[in-house]
Specification:
- Residues 1-10, 51-69 have a biased composition (Basic and acidic residues).
- Residues 8-66 form the Hypervirulence associated protein TUDOR domain.
- InterPro entries: Hva1_TUDOR.
- The protein is built from no helices and seven strands.
- The protein has 69 residues and is mainly β.
- β1 and β2 form a beta hairpin.
Length: 69
């Protein structure tokens, strides 16, 4: 069963610089663009838009890449 996260949930994820923490901004269920990259999300395979606490930048991640903290 896929993870169910909601807006405002505190999460962490791995980056090339190490572990990063932030908050879920929204659940993305349609294709969109972030920082020039296409996010291929759908209702069947949603992604979560997260905002880094450290940098304030936003990124999209698949549910399996996020850990609720």
């Amino acid at each position: 069963m896929a993870k169910q996260l909601k807006k405002g949930d505190e999460v962490s994820w791995d980056t090339s610089q190490g572990k990063t923490e932030g908050r879920v901004v929204k659940k993305q269920t349609s294709s969109t663009k972030i920082k020039g990259h296409t996010v291929k999300a759908s209702a069947a395979q949603p992604q979560y838009i997260v905002e880094s606490d450290k940098s304030g930048k936003r990124a999209a991640h698949k549910p399996d890449e996020l850990r609720k903290i």
